[in-house]
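Good day; I would like, with your permission, to put a structural problem before you. The record follows directly beneath this note:
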Amino acid sequence: MDFEEKEKAVVVKDLERRFGRFVAVNRVTFEVSRGEIFGFLGPNGAGKSTTIRMLCGILAPTGGTGRVAGFDILTQPEMIKAHIGYMSQKFSLYEDLTVEENIDFYGGIYRISREKKRERKEWVIEMAGLKERRHSKTAVLSGGWKQRLALGCAILHEPPVIFLDEPTSGVDPISRRQFWDLIYELSGGGVTIFVTTHYMDEAEYCDRLALIYRGELIASGTPEALKTKLMKEDVIEVLCERPQDAMGEVEKITGIKEVALFGKGLHAVAEDGETAVPAIHETLKEHGYQMERIEKIIPSLEDVFVSLIEARDKAEKPQKEVRR
């Protein structure tokens, strides 16, 4: 292993997983650097969970190669399990156990020494803000506290790589923000974070992103690069009265490919923004709409991902079962 590869926490090349004739993950290749926050995005059924299960040593790949924390996913799955943390949206906590009992349970699973376990337990309780609730049953904790406790249990053994699968699903916005502050702190300490999320604002927090669709990696890069380099069409923001009604009028304009409600207004995807802006303005004016703003903007990640997925659907027929 050369020096450059040692600096990579996850290295995957042509990773593939088939279930019978169905290809769930199709020759996926990517790398994640040490200390990086790497976002793995895709719609339900895209192959996210299957990929993570292979990286965590739970599911053997059908083809390709990969290393996680320096260990081979094909030949060293048990070593991988010992050197990673994993947290799912269900939090993997025992509701009938107290905060301390949950931490003690995971300390036993990870075979942490008695002296070290005491130190790490106090760290988790402090990190999760649960000093006053250490003897409370986990069932009575709020979603935010459960979330931080679950994270603490997942990193009790101080793994170099953490896999977070939809970790903020169902948690209030303030707790989500506090959780991401913890993620930044861990990343700053050299821990690699591999996270899946369906919240587009959270995707912005990642150092790099990869989009998987129908088992294939269709885009990767920094959030900024994805927004400025990958989308060929222009995005027009339209702020006007009755946006839902206005959407029908904007959709009829030549050169407009798609219109969707976005916040209090509309996002229109156009072949050419320079001609689309005056055309939208004129159309809405003709139909008596009061307008606040119509301008070309940098697309959101949601705009980019929808555009990429639609382009892939148009370019290819739906994924078929393949023969061995």
